Amino acid sequence: MEPTISSTASGSTMTIATNAGRAHNPSEDLVDRSLADTTHAPYWTDQVGAPSPCQQLLASKECDLAIIGGGFTGLWTAILAKEADPQREVILLEAETIGFGGSGRNGGFISGSLTHGLAHGEAIWPKEMKTLVRLGNENLNAIVDFTKS
Question: I need a labelling partner for 79 at 20 to 30 A (CA). Which of 15, 37, 116, 146 fits?
Fold first, then answer.
């Protein structure tokens, strides 16, 4: 596709390259061949020894705590609930497989930020930032400690 040239309000022209950078990328054929044998699965569930998913819930089930969503937040909630009371009946409901969503594709990092960055937090919750930073760091440290146990 050819670049588009248009006039701006000041009378100058602007070139918009619709194919900018594409000449340096590998061909689609090369990408397709490279990914031909790829299995699309969350890293965490694609490991030797990973537990098999439970059967689909098809009937009513009573529990003490039902958690919807099997990402970091749902899993962390279930773990803390069972640690607090091992007799508690906890059911984790996930539409796909555990770790399927954003938590399974987060690039392998976690952050203590509860505000999506300090600047964002300061702009919205300036009086609460000291507490939010402390809680975020406590949460991050707890996750790291848990993974080491």
Answer: 116
Residue 9 lies in a domain: no
CA distance linking residue 133 with residue 115, whole number of Å: 9
Both structure tokens of 7: 């006039």
Inter-CA distances, 88 with 60, 63, 69, 93, 114, Å: 18, 8, 18, 16, 28
For 81-126, the pLDDT digits (tens) are 999 999 999 999 988 877 777 666 666 677 888 888 899 999 999 9
CA distance 135 to 113: 9
With a threshold of 0.70, does the pTM exceed it?
Answer: no
Amino acid identity of residue 125, one-letter, is W
Provide the domain count of the chain.
2
> For residue 70, how many other CB atoms are within 10 A of its CB?
22
Within this chain, do residues 72 and 99 fall inside the same structural domain, yes or no?
Answer: yes
Cβ atoms of 65 and 88 closer than 8 Å: yes
Q: Where are the beta strands (DSSP E) in the chain?
A: 4-7, 13-16, 65-68, 90-93
Rounded Cα distance, 100 and 66, in Å: 19
Rounded Cα distance between 146 and 137, Å, is 14
| Residue count (the chain) | 149
